[in-house]
Design goal:
Elements: H1 2-35, H2 41-56, H3 60-79, H4 95-124, H5 129-136, E1 140-141, E2 144-145, H6 153-156
Antiparallel strand pairs: 1-2
Helix pairs in contact: 2-3, 3-4
Length: about 180
């Protein structure tokens, strides 16, 4: 009887102490979430570069040449994006502002194409044709998606506006030419 009582007391003590440990972990959870911050643009670029290196399957010497050039390319492409004014709502824009925004997008596309052509020549010196294709491949090309894009969240939602899940749906901007 005494041994049962003693084991019961020991088990209760252990369970009470484990509850206090769990409570401390729960209190530390917000601190851990704060520590998990959004990655910086440089970290995102590094992740993108590593993903592309893995996708291209290259040796270390080629990767050493490719990495700084690809970072330059990504930065140049980022610089081509038109400036977006998040303060103005589309419904409140005047006709002149809408036309200017459209013209800015056209200019950005021209700049991006120029950057792609310029870096194509540079990448051509260190990459083969199949690797070049992977670097410059677009997600939706003539209704054919690159591998893995079928699982992309934009592609999964069927008939939702903007979804491009079927080549014959007419939503692919390249097919509407």
């Amino acid at each position: 009887m005494k041994t049962r009582l003693m084991t019961l007391v020991v088990m209760m003590a252990v369970s009470i102490s484990s509850f206090s440990v769990m409570a401390q972990n729960a209190q530390d959870a917000p601190a851990q979430k704060r520590a998990k911050q959004k990655p910086t643009p440089e970290q995102m670029m590094d992740r993108h570069v590593k993903m592309m290196e893995k996708k291209l399957v290259m040796d270390e010497a080629t990767a050493a040449k490719f990495t700084p050039l690809y970072k330059e390319y990504l930065q140049a492409m980022k610089d081509c994006r038109p400036a977006v004014n998040k303060d103005t709502k589309k419904s409140e824009m005047t006709d002149a502002e809408i036309e200017k925004a459209i013209q800015d997008r056209f200019d950005a596309k021209k700049k991006a194409l120029d950057v792609q052509q310029r870096y194509f020549k540079k990448f051509k010196e260190i990459l083969n044709a199949k690797q070049l294709e992977k670097v410059f491949q677009q997600p939706c090309m003539g209704g054919k998606m690159k591998p893995g894009m079928q699982q992309h969240k934009m592609m999964r939602h069927g008939d939702r506006p903007g979804a491009m899940n079927r080549p014959e749906c007419g939503k692919c901007p390249l097919l509407s030419k």
